[in-house]
Design goal:
The complex is a heterodimer of chains A (about 110) and B (about 110). Chain A is mostly beta strands. Chain A is about 0% helix and about 60% strand. In chain A, strands 2, 4, 5, 9, 10 and 11 form a six-stranded mixed sheet that branches. Chain A is globular. Chain B is an all-beta fold and about 110 residues long. Classes of the chains: A mainly beta (about 110), B mainly beta (about 110). Chains A and B meet through strand 4, strand 5, strand 9 and strand 10 of A and strand 5 and strand 10 of B.
């Protein structure tokens, strides 16, 4: 059956460290994968997109990797700050029509 | 641009009542989506539309209906509310097929008692 998993429900890290979040999937063949940030009581906000033929994408302190052989994407936040505390969702393209979202990882950056 | 707007923000329904959640976008996007999000969970797709007059079921369509008579509006209808429909509902849009980000509305928090 098709499944998307994100490494843990919650992740606590110290300010200044690098946060690494994982998105694993089975029985999908996405052409691209997206990462979103969601703050409590708000809708998700788009962060980054990576295509199946791209290994890595960067935007400021954010980095995403995409390994279609392992069926995994890693999302890194370097020099993390308390303001980075939020829930992060990965989303897979589902045959170009719609998206399938993972359950999310709640990140807490401790000062 | 206002982006994606949703009304109402909050609503409490009794079992068996009906209501329509409104969603409007002013970005001229072809694709629109309805999701529900239960506490601590990810987003589940209810219905989506690739253009005016075209709608299709997502992962959890039972108990809901949609219509898309214009590019801007994509209302979601609950006919006979059930406690299992207690959730936060998000509407989203994107311009077209392909690697384009989705723009989300602020959500509607619905409680069915």
């Amino acid at each position: 059956s098709q499944k998307i998993e994100q490494n843990s429900e919650a992740l606590n890290i110290q300010e200044g460290k690098t946060a690494t979040l994982t998105c694993n999937y089975t029985n999908y063949s996405p052409a691209y994968l997206q990462w979103y940030r969601q703050d409590p009581g708000r809708g998700p906000v788009f962060l980054l997109l990576i295509r199946e033929n791209e290994k890595e994408k960067r935007k400021e302190r954010l980095k995403v990797t995409f390994d279609t052989t392992l069926k995994q994407s890693l999302f890194h936040i370097t020099a993390s700050q308390p303001a980075d505390s939020a829930t992060y969702l990965c989303a897979l393209d589902n045959y170009g029509q719609n998206f399938v979202f993972g359950p999310g990882t709640r990140l807490s950056v401790l000062p | 641009n206002a982006g994606v707007t949703q009304t109402p923000k909050f609503r409490i329904l009794k079992i068996g009542q009906s209501m329509t959640l409104q969603c409007t976008q002013d970005m001229n996007h072809n694709y629109m989506y309805w999701y529900r999000q239960d506490p601590g969970m990810g987003l589940k797709l209810i219905y989506y539309s690739v253009g005016a007059g075209i709608t299709d079921k997502g992962e959890v369509p039972n108990g809901y209906n949609v219509s898309r008579s214009t590019t801007e509006d994509f209302p979601l209808r609950l006919e006979l509310a059930a406690p299992s429909q207690t959730s936060v509902y998000f509407c989203a849009s994107r311009p077209r097929q392909g690697g384009y980000e989705q723009f989300f509305g602020p959500g509607t928090r619905l409680t069915v008692l």
